[in-house]
Structure formats: C-alpha cells, structure tokens
Design goal:
With about 140 residues, the chain is mainly alpha-helical. About 65% of the residues lie in helices and about 5% in strands. The termini are far apart. Bound molecules: magnesium ion. The site of magnesium ion (MG) has 4 residues, from helix 3 and helix 5.
Length: about 140
C-alpha cells in the first residue's frame, strides 16, 4: 500500500479510531516560528544522533550535506513528475502532496545541517533578507 491509498482512519473491531494525523497536536495548532521549527528538528536530530551515531562532527556534516542533496533529488523528481516528465507509472501516482513532502524533507535536512554547523537560522535568514532587499532596492513591505 502506498501513501496515496493509506486509509484516513484505522479500525479496532470495526470501530473507527482517530489516527495521529487526525488529532491536532500542539504542533498543528500553535504558530510556527523559525526558532520553534529549529527546536523541533533539534529534538529529532538528537534522536537520530543517538539512533545512528556518527563518530565526529565532520562525518555528521558530510552525512547531513549528502541528505540535503538526496532530498533535493527527490524533490526534483517530483517536480519533473508534476510536469509529466517522468515515466508513465510515476505520473499516474502523482499527487501535489508528494511535492510538498519532498519540499519539507529538503527543508528538514537543511535545518539539520544548520544545527550540526551551529548556524543561527533565524539570524542568517534575517541578514540575507536585508541584504537582498538592499541589493535590489526592494522597499519594506513591497
Ligand atoms: Mg524525501
């Protein structure tokens, strides 16, 4: 069974029960700041580092960088599929959710890399937005 055919409800003795995806969690209902996003991935990164430990920082940076590239490839593949530039069987299974999932994977991997590199994501994004607006003379709120 692939993701597209996964039922939205599970049953126990014929009774529908809520699945995790149907129950709004605190993550679903609270505003998501950049810091909150990074904090969530910091928890996930800690788990991954314990579950699949790598002996040193450089190996973790290498692994996180390769994961960014892997997920970019998967996102590219889904975008090609959205443009009917894939094999027919893949086009037949296409859904926008696939693109969104791969986009989220890319973002997750970039954030995981930032965590390993001790990059303050919010700070560097603020700096880069200011730089871009200044370079192209983009006025505030335009
Ligand atoms: Mg992926």
């Amino acid at each position: 069974m692939n993701d597209q055919t996964r039922p939205l409800t599970q049953t126990v003795d014929g009774e529908a029960v809520a699945t995790a995806s149907q129950e709004p969690t605190q993550l679903d209902t609270q505003p998501m700041t950049v810091q909150k996003l990074v904090d969530e991935y910091r928890v996930i990164a800690r788990y991954f580092n314990e579950r699949w430990p790598l002996p040193d920082h450089n190996q973790r940076v290498f692994a996180r960088t390769m994961k960014v590239m892997e997920e970019l490839g998967e996102l590219s593949d889904e975008i090609l599929t959205s443009m009917n530039l894939s094999r027919d069987s893949k086009i037949a299974e296409f859904s926008r959710e696939n693109v969104e999932d791969e986009f989220a994977d890319v973002l997750a991997c970039v954030i995981s890399l930032a965590i390993e590199l001790d990059i303050d994501v919010e700070e560097v994004i603020r700096r880069k937005i200011a730089f871009t607006k200044e370079r192209y003379e983009i006025k505030a709120n335009s």
